[in-house]
Amino acid sequence: MRVDLAPARESRQTVQSRALLTFLAQADRCLTAQEIHAQLHRQGSGIALATVYRWLTRLVRSGAVDVLMHDDGEATYVRGSDRHHHHLVCRSCGRVTEISEPMVERWTVEVATRAGFADVSHALTVFGTCSACRGSGPS
Amino acid sequence: MRVDLAPARESRQTVQSRALLTFLAQADRCLTAQEIHAQLHRQGSGIALATVYRWLTRLVRSGAVDVLMHDDGEATYVRGSDRHHHHLVCRSCGRVTEISEPMVERWTVEVATRAGFADVSHALTVFGTCSACRGSGPS
DNA sequence: GTAAGTGCAAACGGTTTGCAGCCTC
DNA sequence: GAGGCTGCAAACCGTTTGCACTTAC
After folding, report:
1. Given pLDDT bands bounded at 50, 70 and 90, which one contains residue A6?
2. C-alpha–C-alpha distance, residues A44 and A23, integer Å
3. Band of pLDDT at residue B99, cut at 50, 70 and 90
């Protein structure tokens, strides 16, 4: 499930950018900028947090990466996919699953249009407790 | 369309809290904490920003007010209602319309359950440009 | 009188930016 | 060699918090 993350056609390749892009291409879940930074450090790529942010900003602008704003105001980043999708997030472990359903897409556009709105977009996130977390401790 | 914003049964009434609650009860659109603070000052109620935040936090916890996280990480607040609903927000003027649709409710629960999730909840916000804003300047 | 509510200012945490130096092309 | 990329640290900005004071009950 490799996705071409290099919209950086006109960007210079550096040790840092290569490490970051490679890492992001392989990541399979939502990560905050700080997590990405920490992970890269853990695997030996000494990239500065500011650089991570600079690249994420650039990648988001180019559409290669999607941002997900969390309730606490922290942003998480995921490889962007061409198709629109939503996230199913476990309240306990934070694991994210992508979900998608054309019906919701159609419904939101329809409702918004009926209300006189144009240029419609939407953000939907579903929260719950995954089976693993429930099994280990429903508290 | 007045909504009882006083979940503060067990709270003391003060000049500030009364001004804030009255203002919120009349507000018909999403407002940031800072906007609420500025508006209150404009109308002569010298309330501190920290107090605005403290009340908003309390009201959100009690369910009297809904939070809406924006892409830039800023939170906006609107009167909440008892029944579950979603928001249709104008990107330009910030006006908020409540929308609700059982189908979406059912779908999210179904998808989440199928994925092994329990105790499901969801957050859906639809963004668009309302007719008024479009008419005045589609840019 | 007592404790909740308030104001102020400092702290916080995530993100952005200015600038000097490095390194790719 | 020139200019993009990076690192560092300081700045930013919305939000939270500690503490002393005020005020509703």
Report:
1. low
2. 12
3. confident
Instruction: Answer yes or no: do A127 and B129 touch at CB < 8 A.
Output: no
Spacing of C-alpha B32 from chain mean position: 9
- Could you read off the pLDDT of A7-16 as tens digits, one per residue? 445 789 999 9
- pLDDT reading at B119 higher than 80: yes
Per-residue pLDDT averaged across B95-101, rounded?
A: 81
Query: Distance between CA B41 and CA A115 in Å, rounded?
Result: 33
A residues 30..69 contacting B (CB < 8 A): 67, 69
Q: Exposed/middle/buried for B109, CB within 10 Å: 0-12, 13-18, 19+? A: middle
List of residues 6+ apart from B134 with CB closer than 8 A: A118
Residues in chain A: 139
Domains of chain A: 11-80 (1.10.10.10), 83-139 (3.30.1490.190)
Q: Does B120 touch chain A (CB under 8 A)?
A: yes
A50 CA to C19 C1' distance (Å)? 14
Q: What percent of chain B has pLDDT over 70?
A: 90
